[in-house]
Amino acid sequence: MNEHKDKPMPDIGFRMMSFFFRIRDRFRNPGNQLEKVGIKEGQTLLDFGCGSGSYVIPAARMVGGKGVVYALDIHPLAISAVEKKATKEGLTNIATILSDRDTGLPDESIDVVLLYDVIRIVKDKRALLKELHRVMKANGLLSILAEHIKVEDVLEITEKDGLFSLRDQHGKLLNFERGQHEQTE
């Protein structure tokens, strides 16, 4: 068994987290956070570790009908929650991916990756960042929300191999540019 393989949290834990996020989202509009990223109409976006979809729905509205939002999570309940929200909102530009890390997306196909409050729980952070680098376009943006982890730790993890460099920072929201080439081991 691969010791670096991530596993979903128990269903009860996911349900409790989703309940907390619904309350949080009433007080802190996820769309306001996304405005600091600079998402544009027509872009292709990956919300890695999308959870119950707090950022998926506003992102789908921002990219519009010509854009696509991929909502990836390791937990089947997350995928189900996002699909229900998309249907309820009448959004057809959302595609879900059930995976622990591998996106299955083509090379250089993503404009923006959201990694919100996820990097701290991923076991093999380097492998994750390499996968995100692979799927991002040359001018792609990686947006990390550093909740429950020090900003300094996020900077060290993300810039270590030269795959990404910090573009701008808004408190705990860090936006990174994709490096031009992947570093080898």
TrEMBL record:
<protein>
    <recommendedName>
        <fullName>Methyltransferase domain-containing protein</fullName>
    </recommendedName>
</protein>
<dbReference type="InterPro" id="IPR025714">
    <property type="entry name" value="Methyltranfer_dom"/>
</dbReference>
<dbReference type="InterPro" id="IPR053173">
    <property type="entry name" value="SAM-binding_MTase"/>
</dbReference>
<dbReference type="Pfam" id="PF13847">
    <property type="entry name" value="Methyltransf_31"/>
</dbReference>
<feature type="domain" description="Methyltransferase">
    <location>
        <begin position="40"/>
        <end position="146"/>
    </location>
</feature>
<dbReference type="InterPro" id="IPR029063">
    <property type="entry name" value="SAM-dependent_MTases_sf"/>
</dbReference>
